[in-house]
Amino acid sequence: MTPLWACAAVAFLVLSVVVGVLAGPIDLGARDVLESAAARLHLPGFTSPLSPTEEAILWEIRVPRVVLAALVGGMLSLAGATYQGVFRNPLADPYLLGVAAGAGLGATIAIAYLPDGLRGQRALPVAAFIGGAIAVMLTYAVGRSARRERDAATLVLAGVTVAAFFTAWQTFVQQQNSETLQQVYSWILGNIPSTGWSDVLLILPYVAVAAVVIIALRRVVDVLNLGDDEAASLGVNVRRVRLALVVAATLGTAAAVAVTGLIGFVGIIVPHAIRLLTGASYRALIPLSVIAGAGFLVLADVIARTALSPAEIPLGVVTAFLGAPFFALVLRSTRTSAA
Amino acid sequence: MTAIGLRHVTVELGGRPVVRDVDLDVAEGEWVALIGPNGAGKTTLLRSIARLVPFSGSIELDGRDTVGLARAELARLLAVVPQEPSTPPWMTVGEYVLLGRTPHLGPLAKEGLRDRGAAAEALARLDLLGYAERRLGTLSGGEKQRVVVARALAQEARIVLLDEPTASLDIGHQQQALELLDALRAESGLTLVAAMHDLTLAAQYADRMVLLDDGRIVADGGPADVLTEHLIARHYDASIEVVNIDGRIAIVPTRPTVG
Asked: What is the pTM of this model?
C-alpha cells in the first residue's frame, strides 16, 4: 500500500509544481515553458520561444519561487512529523521549541533598528535565523538544567517558557517602534518572497542536511514514539538520537522561517492528513510528509499570489484558510477507521 | 549458570530509597516471580536490571556488568515487557514486532531477511501469523499482550523481564499468557523474571518466588516456602488463608471481621 501512496504523493507534487510554474499574471503557455526548459537543458534542436523578459520571469522569479515554496513546505511538514513522533505529542508543530518567537524577535529587531540600507531582503533572514537559533539553544539549556527524567516533556515546557519570554520582548520592541508594525506584521503572517535564487541557496543546505538526517533516522522515530523507557530497552540511545533529530528539524525550520516568516498549520496538518489517509507509521509518514508538504505549500502559494492579483494574500492566511476545511473533511471521512 | 546477578543494588528515587541493598541470583532458564505489596519496589527493581534507573551496587547479565554495555548490547541480552506498553493504534502488528529487531540494527540500517525471519517466527510462535497486517488499535487486550510478547521474542534476548504481564487480562487470558510464557521458556531456555500480583497464579508457574517489602528481599524460595500465612499477613497486611490442594497452593482471602 505504501508504494502506491508514495506515487500519489509524487504525482501531487509534480502537478503542484506544474501549476505553480504556469500560474501567474503573465501567461507563458505550457508548450513554450517546456521548450524553454528543454533549451536550458541543452537538449539538441530546442531554442526558447520566450522573449528575454519572459525568460527572466520564468527562470528568475517563478521557478525559484516554486522551488522555495516546495523546500519550505517540505521542511515544515518534515519538522512537524518529527516533533510529533519524538515528543509523542500530536499537537507538536515545527515552532514547538521557540524557533518562531526567536525568529520573530530577530526579525523585529532588524526591522526596527537596522539602517534602511541593511534592512529588507539581506539582513532580515539572517537576523531571524540568529534569533531562532538562540531561542532554541536557550530552550535546550533550560530543559537540560531541569531534572533528568521526563526529558521530552521538560524540553517542551522549556520551549513554552522561552517562547513566552521572546514574544514579550518582541512585542515590547514593536510597541516602542510603532512605525515598524506593518512590516513586522506582514513578516509574521508569512510569505514566499520573489527574490530569485538567493533565498533558495540560503536555505538549501540547512533543509538538505535536516532532510538527510531525519530520513536516515526515520525508523528510530517509530521506536522513540513508544516512549523513553521502551526505546531504551530496545537498544536506542534515546538522548543522543533525539538530540540529532531535534537539532536537524529545528535548524531546517529556523532556516525556513528566516526566509518566509511564520507559515502556520502546514507542519501539523500535512503529517496528520497523511496519517489519517494512509495509516502510515513514521518510517513511511516522514518521507511522505516531505513530498506532500512541498506540493501543498506550492499550491497554497499559487493561491496567495493569484487570487487577488496583483495583491498578495499572506501565505499563512491561505494555508489555514485552505487547510482547515480540508483537514476537517479528512477527519470526518476517516473518523471510523482511524479510531 | 547465572543469568542475572545483583550485588548490593540500591535505587533511590527522589532521595528516597526504593530498592535497598538487594542481592539476587537468577539461574539460566529459571522463572522467578517477584511479589510484594504495592510500592514494595518490584517495578523499580526490574527497571534497575534493565538499566532504566540509576542504581548503586552492581548488576551482571551472563557475567557482564550492565554499566559497561552499550544500549544495543544490553537489549540483545535482555528484553522488557512493560506493564503498560505503548501501542500506537495506527501501527500494524508486523511493523510493531519488527521494532523488536532494533538492537540488532544500526541506527541507520534497514531490516534484512534475517530480521524479517525472526519477526515472522515470533509471530508464528504466538499464533499471530494472520495478524501481521492488523492495526494495533483494532486488537483486544489479550491480543495486544501477545503482540508485545512477540516483540520481546523478536528481540532474541535470552532474558525477559515482565512487569505484571497479566494485569489487564481476564482469568482465561491470564492462564493462556502464562502457559505461553512457560512453553516459550521450555523451548528456548529463556530466563524469566516477572513482577506478579496474583499469588495463586504466580505459584503455579514460577520456580521461585522472591518477596519484596519496602525495597528489601524478605523471603526467597519455592512457592511453598514463601507463600505462608505468616509472611503474607505480615508483608501484605492481609488476612488470608493458604490452602494446599494436592500440592497446588491457593491464597484465599478471609474477611477479618466475619472470621
From this structure: 0.89
